[in-house]
Specification:
Blueprint (H helix, E strand, L loop, with lengths): L1 H13 L3 H31 L3 E8 L5 E10 L1 H15 L5 E5 L1
Length: 101
C-alpha cells in the first residue's frame, strides 16, 4: 500500500495541475499587457513632446526685411497662435509676410 501511495504522489507532482496552467496563462497575459502598455506609453510620450518652430518676417519688394518677429517654438497651437498674431500685426507694415518652419 505504501508503494501505490508513493507512486500516486510521484505521479501527481509530474503532471501540472489545471489551476497551475490557468495561473501560468494569466501571468503570460499580464506580462504581454504590461509590455504593450509600456510600448504605447513610450511612443506616446516620444511623439507628443515634439516641438514645432516658426520664424516670421515681413519683407519689402526688394527682399529687405522690414520687421522680424523672431522665432517661436512650442506646441502646434502655440506656433499657430504666434503666426496668426504676427500676421495681424503685419497688415500695418505692407510688404510680404512669411513664416518659415
Amino acid at each position: 500500500m505504501e508503494t501505490s501511495d508513493h507512486l500516486k504522489k510521484q505521479g501527481d507532482t509530474e503532471k501540472p495541475d489545471v489551476l497551475d496552467i490557468q495561473n501560468i496563462n494569466k501571468m503570460k497575459t499580464l506580462k504581454n499587457l504590461f509590455f504593450i502598455t509600456c510600448i504605447f506609453l513610450f511612443v506616446t510620450l516620444t511623439f507628443s513632446s515634439c516641438k514645432k518652430c516658426s520664424h516670421c518676417t515681413i519683407k519689402d519688394a526688394n527682399g529687405n526685411t522690414i520687421k522680424d518677429y523672431g522665432e517661436k517654438c512650442g506646441t502646434s497651437t502655440d506656433v499657430n497662435d504666434f503666426e496668426n498674431s504676427s500676421k495681424k500685426d503685419a497688415g500695418q507694415y505692407g510688404g510680404t509676410f512669411t513664416c518659415t518652419k
